[in-house]
Amino acid sequence: MSERRPLIAGNWKMNGMRAEARRLAVEIGTLRMSQPDAEFDMLVCPPFTALEAVGQVLENTSVYLGGQNCHASEKGAHTGDISPAMLADVDCTHVILGHSERRTDHQETNEQVKAQAQAAHAQSLIAIICVGETLEERESGKALEVVCEQIKASVPGDASYGNTVIAYEPVWAIGTGKVATPADVQEMHSDIRKTLSEMLGSEEAEGIRILYGGSMKPENAKELLALDDVDGGLIGGASLKAEDFWTIAQSCPSIS
Ligand code: PEP
């Protein structure tokens, strides 16, 4: 059994006006504080406009707050962007980077993701770097190769288990209800860890948490979270229902 503390992260995407976001945060914070000693970390990543409101609600809970993206620059002429320092200023501790929706909708590249992660680290934010293959890449037998190339190109040299989390999210499983098989997930996570070990050394690679994301739900969470190299989940749809998000968190195996 792994000694890595599981992380259950909610990606709220572009959902939630502030009142709704506050309500959801109250429910999640209350559930988390009903079991303060439970051996997993919880994180929510609301839209930028709700970060401050949600941060206030979660202030005295142990639920972490994260952004869904950030720019690689500290400040300046980047209309519509948010810097890592701005996220830290509203008490974020984490930031999701390179989500497939950012890679597709905004053409973000591995190189940009790497620069964003370095910028996030400079503000003491934990970067959650997302990777994953398309259906075409999976069906043509290239999934492992594609994802390990993304890891090599998106993870910066200063990455450590203290400042970086990886999220493996097959693009075809996000928001579709389709889930990768446990065997495929374990094989991918193990290959990702091997690649991290070649890049950063075995101590860092053994400590870095690798999350699975893609239609994780209360019904499938236990099986996925029990896999040797799965250290938590990045959850979209099911993180918008406090009870479902909590049930997923409670499906984490205990740390040995
Ligand atoms: C995600 O967006 O990171 C995600 C995994 O979404 P869903 O859980 O809805 O598939």
- List SSEs in N-to-C order: EHEHEHEHHEHHEHHEHEH
The fourth-level CATH homologous superfamily is Aldolase class I
Q: Please report which band the strand proportion falls in: under 5%, 5-15%, 15-25%, 25-35%, 35-45% or over 45%.
A: 5-15%
**Proper CATH architecture:** Alpha-Beta Barrel
What is the averaged pLDDT score?
96
In CATH, the topology is named TIM Barrel
Ligands in the structure?
Answer: phosphoenolpyruvate
User: Helix/strand/pairing class, anyone?
Assistant: alpha/beta
Instruction: Give the helix tally.
Output: 11
The gross shape turns out to be globular
Secondary structure tally: strands: 8
Rg, Å, rounded: 17 Å
What does the largest sheet look like? 8 strands, parallel, barrel
- Helix proportion range: 40-55%
What is the name of the CATH class?
A: Alpha Beta
Q: Roughly how many Å apart are the termini?
A: 6 Å
Strand order within the widest beta sheet: 1-2-3-4-5-6-7-8
Spans where pLDDT lies below 50 across 5 or more residues: none
Number of domains: 1
Outline the structure in words.
An eight-stranded parallel barrel has the order 1-2-3-4-5-6-7-8, surrounded by six helices. The protein is built from eleven helices and eight strands. The protein starts with 6 loop residues before the first strand and ends in a 6-residue tail after the last helix. Strand 7 (209-213), helix 10 and strand 8 (232-235) form a beta-alpha-beta unit. It has 256 residues and is α/β, with parallel strands linked by helices. It has helices spanning 18-34, 51-58, 84-89, 100-105, 110-122, 135-139, 143-154, 182-200, 202-207, 218-225, 242-250, and strands at 7-11, 41-45, 64-67, 94-97, 126-131, 164-168, 209-213, 232-235. Residues 11, 169, 174-175, 213-216, 234-238 line the site of phosphoenolpyruvate (PEP).
